[in-house]
Amino acid sequence: MTDAANPLLADWTTPFGLPPFAAIEDAHFAPALDAALEEGRAAIAAIADNPEPPTFANTIEALELADRTLDRVAGVFFNLAGSDSNPAREALQRDYAPKFSAYASEIVNNEALFARIATLWEARDSLGLTPEQMRVLHLTHRSFVRSGAALQGEARDRLTEVKSRLAVLGTSFTQNLLADEREWFMELSEGDLEGLPDFVIDTARAAGEEKGAKGPVVTLSRSLIVPFLQFSPRRDLRETAWRAWTARGANGGATDNRQIAAEVLKLRDERAKLLGYADFAAYKLETEMAGGADRVRDLLMAVWEPAKASAEADARVLEEMMREDGVNGPLEPWDWRYYAERRRKAEHDLDEAELKPFFQLEAMIDAAFDCATRLFGLEFRPLEVDLYHPDARAWEVTREGRHMAVFIGDYFARGSKRSGAWCSAMRSQKKLGGETRPIVVNVCNFAKGNPALLSYDDARTLFHEFGHALHQMLSDVTYGSISGTSVARDFVELPSQLYEHWLEVPEVLKTHARHARTGEAIPQPLLDRLLAAQTYDMGFQTVEYVASALVDLDFHDGAAPDDPMAAQEATPARLGMPRAIGMRHATPHFAHVFAGDGYSSGYYSYMWSEVMDADAFAAFEEAGDPFDRDLAAKLERHILSAGGSEEADALYTAFRGRMPGVEALLKGRGLDRAA
Ligand SMILES: [Zn+2]
Q1: 3-state secondary structure of 425
Q2: Whose CA is closest to 396, among 412, 414, 409?
Q3: For residue 465, how far is its CA from the centre of ligand 1 (angstroms)?
Q4: Could you tell me the distance, in angstroms and rounded to a whole number, from the CA of residue 445 to the centre of ligand 1?
Q5: Which pLDDT tens digit goes with each residue over 312-366?
Q6: Which are the contacts of 365, defined by CB distance < 8 A and separation ≥ 6?
Q7: Are strands 393-399 and 402-412 parallel, antiparallel or unpaired?
Q8: What is the rounded CA–CA span in Å between residue 133 and residue 103?
Q9: Which residues have CB under 8 Å from 346's CB, separation 6+?
């Protein structure tokens, strides 16, 4: 096939330059990806071998544009691989994953290329760069240095060895964990099912069939064991199940992860030191808004004490319930979920069936759009265009008649879609090489229906992903590498989690949460109960999470511990963690931290983002109007349009006038009351 015949490589003359989905076939991807990689390699070689001395334009800007075709083709491919896969697309993913990683490492290991970048970095103050250009130069140089581009000889070889050993250990860690999770199950007699709701019984029976057992079983799958711990009145069975669940990865033998965890921590420490950092936390947090371990610890400790006080108060109530059941002795970790569930039922009984008719998918899409109109003046017009699946829908997003973006909503679950919900940009905003406006996709897994009805959590998810979409659609930067959501990991969830707050605004719910059949607005008492239930059992959840986040931080801040299991015990002991709460993730199954590098020394970031979103929304509450246009304009100027053009704390401070404090988070989690 010639390039001209491949629709992925031809010019896209479709409306808004959308990919020509109707013409694209799976057979087009491999040749298009190959051609795009080849074009990228040629562009990189041309930059590296350019006989002219390096300039910002012939090096950094040229690098920004080197992957033009690859970005375009990969943007389509990865979207389809996630949201509408098939065996051919899965095979392509397996084939191309090593090709992409080889391509990326060729670039960072290109010495001539790095020499040009390093020359520019040295001369940065005399280049007359704009602040955004300076930022892009800084980030480009930093990412090469962090990959080891500045190392020579033995140090460089050792870094390569360490990285590949870490990759092997990460894979083993995951596989051992899966093996332990597969291995264990507990058979239940018919009598053992007493007190379990139907959905748990159904899941247990299905699991029993899968395991070839005679009857229902409990497995270590989160979707089965957590409800079992919540609902089973059998304390002995709960204890057995809880002990097995928390022993994953620490059962001795070939699947034991304890040695792996110790080796991973040592190698990470070595990697950081090879690159010139004091320890792994310093290396890892350099690129984050938090910047260093002390700030992370300060944040976690500010939340810890009120959370602990709240959990201790809850523990007393639960222990009293246990006494009334005639159980003596202290509340144990296998008791908490059970008594907390019974208390929830008594105090916050929310009937999903009563709620659901008020949350129609169409109305919630309208609500998300409506908030964006009131805040940012955006308007949404349905588009009749060819997309990749009949369930996907597109809108043109405009402001005062000006085209801003194409938004694609792909909301329904199907077998070809991976689970979860996400936002991706099929095309990102940038101005270099001509103004490019984004094509942004929100993908969810909601159940179909007529009309389609959402749970309240689903509606929050819709708002969450739409918040990410706004970060892409309002982006207004020159360079694609810092566009939209290309920001620090502990900053990227701010726009999405912040947007969830608008769903909770009573006037939004009163307008859009209307009964599917009667059109009646959600009644105030139901709304009150719904909002009150959101903060139930937050002491437990916060303690469980913060303890794991602190253990993760302690592992990486300073020298690696010789015995991670002992270190894992020391942290909660020092903090006085309530004994009836286990850690959310014990070391031998803490996949966030050991299965790869993603959340190592970064597990805190969920809470960091929540601190910011609560604090940012509090600005609107202080203004007395959730739709305050001046504040929305500031939010857009400093955060939603700014991408990664400045350090995240500078962006936040420009919006809020100060760094975030934890007060709004404590209030939002209902933890201010117990302290
Ligand atoms: Zn998110």
Answers
A1: strand
A2: 409
A3: 6
A4: 15
A5: 999 999 999 999 999 999 999 999 999 999 999 898 888 778 888 999 999 999 9
A6: 409, 411, 462
A7: antiparallel
A8: 25
A9: none
